[in-house]
Amino acid sequence: MLVMVISVSACGSSSIFQTDSTEESTVSRVPWDYRVVESTVGDLIGSDMTVLPDNELLPNDGNYATGDLIWTLQFMDAELVTDADQRNEINLSTWNTIKSYGEQKTAIEDLTNLKVSITTDVDLVGVYKTKLNDKTRNFAVIELPSGNRIKQPIDDKRYNALEKEKTVSVVLEEVHDFADYDSAYAKFRGWAN
Known about the structure:
The protein is an alpha+beta fold and about 190 residues long. The protein is about 15% helix and about 55% strand. It is built from three helices and twelve strands, in the order H-E-E-E-E-E-E-E-H-E-E-E-H-E-E. It has helices at about 1-10, 105-115, 155-160; strands at about 15-20, 25-45, 50, 55-60, 70-80, 90, 95-100, 115-130, 135-145, 150-155, 165-175, 185-190. The radius of gyration is 23 Å and the shape is elongated. The N and C termini lie far apart (about 65 Å).
């Protein structure tokens, strides 16, 4: 009887950790990207409006009329699945319109606050070479502030410079969540030097 109670209670629990016999993975949803898109107001439906060309329904907070030219802020998030070996699988959402603007300048100002470029030092996990049919490729593996590890192709000069380093200076793009600004995800955008 006790074994049945334990078995049933184990089936009802849910976790972001998915475990199989050989590895453990974590799943998280992070802000991925934003863009500003020129759009046109379509039909007015009560206090809402459709935004063309995709016919998305948004609140008509700017009191726009059918046919008005507007700019919309669109958002994309990502589901990151990280396995026990620190390999990532990324599943991107579709673009979702979240806000409208009467002026492009105002939309761009919001965009620059949501996507911030920073230069910082990150941990260098290491560098390595691969060889296939007399062709050699070099890679660097770095650990982002999020804890995710990524690899980037590098040339021979950078390989030699990084071979004995423990940290490296990089340019990151910090993408903030529109609804929760403190929630952010940093993406690699290049080497700082």
